[in-house]
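Suppose a colleague, Dr. K., hands you the sequence of a protein chain of 92 amino acids and asks what its three-dimensional shape might be. Before reaching for any lab equipment, you can write down a predicted structure in token form. Begin with the sequence itself:
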Amino acid sequence: MKEKAFAIRVTGRVQGVAYRAWARGTARALGLRGWVRNRPDGSVEALIAGPEEAVERMVTAMGEGPGAARVTDVWTEPADPAAVPRGFEITG
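The predicted structure, expressed as tokens, is then:
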């Protein structure tokens, strides 16, 4: 199984709308590992890794977010899957 990893930054109305909890639940349901956290500039960043198809599904889902979110942009940058920790947590 080929693994893929991305560092992701999501902008828009993504803080104060349960985005991180939603992302953690979605990532865990997809069998991904990594973390998600708020940034001081109002965006959310994440590091995710797992099976290629599941990672792609997560990136697509992050462009929608939970119901109260209003995502304007999702930036992705390839990352090293070996550098992504086990489990999926909210780190900040």
